[in-house]
Amino acid sequence: MIDRLRTRSPRTGPRVPGPVRRTAAARARTALLSAGALVTCASITVGCGVVPGFTGGSGDDTVTVMTWAPENTSATNKPGMPAMAKAYARWVNAHGGLHGRKLNVLTCNDHNDYIGAAKCARLAAKEKVVAVVGSYSQYAGSTLSPLESAGIPYIGGYGLTKYEFKSALSYPVNGGQPALLAGLGEELGKHCGPLALVRPDTVTGDQLPMLLDSGLEASGHTAAFDLRAAEDATALDQQAQQALRQATAVPPRKGCVVPVLDERTGTFMDSFRRLSVSYPAVRIASVLGSVDQSVIDASGGRSGPYEGAYVTGWYPEAGDARWDPMKKVIREEAFGDNRIDPADAGVQTTWIAYTVLKRVVDSLGDGEVSARTIRSALDNDLEVDTGGLTPTLRWRFQDLTAVVDYPRLINSDVTFQVVRDGRLVAARKGFVNVSKTLESTSSE
């Protein structure tokens, strides 16, 4: 469980998100004040507005949400996610809004540290947003506690940490790092000799070896050799040398090197490319988020080091026609905005998260739109069709997978892709479900 900020709670039991228990006298006082407010609004219509982030009917103006991600840091940056959120808001408002309501998107830079992450969450609570949507943070433990205290749902986080799959107020749209690494391990276990994982030396990175090894074990392969790298490293020659030694240790079996370093994957590959000429050939494999089409293009395309690489993702490859609606929005509302790469997994996740938000608000019709009603809709029978980018999404209790460390995981499907002639294309048709592998995984 996530540690929560200490607050005064009713003596009868623990504090939970939702309306606070009130005495009969307090309820009577509230009713009288509400009646007075209605009389005032009836006589001075233009003087009455709505609580920030809250709407109560089709005549109300604004649904306020927040999207956060790190920007301008020395480690991983995801500026495309808040930029995509803003572009989506411009587009949806130009086409009638969310069931007639204006969408207002606030953004926040979490600066890739726990202090910045907590500040973003507290700002969301202060602004009374109805949801945090399509966001990225390595410090979900610092963000979800303030959101839980305020009862604000977290929709479509990137899935970087296990906290996003534990909080009752988190509604993930993908299988996060757990599904990517387990799926990659399953695939590599069938094709690789010795295998070396290169990953960030962070708390989040510490989860990755166990996840990759669960997939390798499912395919009858031994555990990967674990190599750590500083998150803000500018050169990774030592890690590249060690990875090549491990992957070529059992000739003639062709080994595999798996860099999962987000934006520092390119730094590793620069070292790897230079040093690999002294070793037998090995295969590269990674996950979307560390490798995408723009990274492949920048490294030389078909003549680059990624040719033949295996890559697991959550969604169809970037060239799939199912992404056309998102690309249309980008062309119309963010043409020339270099922050938004339609092949970026973060941008794609933000698009899907806002698709969920639109479906939720549409389902509420002319009723109240608030953090409480959004949670209620998501917890019950709401189904979200993402146009084939994911399976149909639902967050009822019966939809949760039986993964001990990730109890809020509902979508454990992955896609297998391969770099062929410099292009990232589908290695298999459709999605592959890795829930059975994940169910056998536990950090205990």
From TrEMBL:
UniProtKB keywords: Membrane, Signal, Transmembrane, Transmembrane helix
Name of protein: Leucine-binding protein domain-containing protein
InterPro entries, sorted: Leu-bd (IPR028081), Peripla_BP_I (IPR028082)
Chain intervals with Low complexity compositional bias: 10-22
Gene3D superfamilies hit by this protein: 3.40.50.2300
Region (Disordered): 1-22
Keyword Signal tagged: yes
SUPFAM superfamilies: Periplasmic binding protein-like I
UniProt keyword Signal present: yes
Pfam family, one: Peripla_BP_6
Similarity-based family: Belongs to the leucine-binding protein family.
Transmembrane segments: 31-54
UniProt feature coiled coil, ranges: none
Annotated ranges, domain Leucine-binding protein: 75-388
